[in-house]
Design a protein that fits this description.
Elements (H helix, E strand, L loop, with lengths): L1 H10 L12 E10 L2 E15 L6 E8 L2 E8 L5 E10 L21 E3 H12 L1
Antiparallel strand pairs: 1-2, 1-5, 2-3, 3-4, 5-6
């Protein structure tokens, strides 16, 4: 059993940002098409996290051309190159599945822009 735990520990990524439900993320995925490889960016709202060690995952939702698209990403998958946090959402729920039924302005979540927050903190330090 220790060999399995050691293997799982070696596969866990440590450079992941802290994020929770309500945050908007940009996930850079490596896509293989034939013999070519490219990076595709999927940007959307985190509507749920499932924490279970090496098999942890999170669900991201975006609306593309009027159609809701949800994708479940394994947190420690090798095809994920980078995860960027765009905005931090203010929510009171762990799972935001109710957003599936809402559209337009009703589906908005109050947010704090991370990039502006980081810029202000660096200007104060200088």
């Amino acid at each position: 059993m220790n060999a399995l735990q050691d293997f799982n520990q070696a596969q866990i990524k440590t450079d992941l940002p802290d994020f929770k439900s309500g945050d908007t993320l940009k996930i850079h995925c490596r896509i293989k098409e034939g013999n070519k490889e490219r990076v595709q960016i999927f940007e959307g709202l985190v509507i749920g996290r499932h924490s279970n060690g090496i098999s942890s995952s999170f669900t991201v939702r975006k609306v593309s051309q009027g159609i809701g698209v949800e994708r479940v990403f394994p947190l420690h998958a090798p095809f994920i190159e980078k995860i960027e946090k765009v905005t931090v959402g203010k929510v009171r729920r762990a799972k935001l599945y109710y957003l599936r039924d809402l559209s337009g302005k009703k589906a908005r979540i109050a947010t704090v822009d991370v990039r502006q927050k980081e810029a202000k903190s660096t200007s104060k330090e200088a």
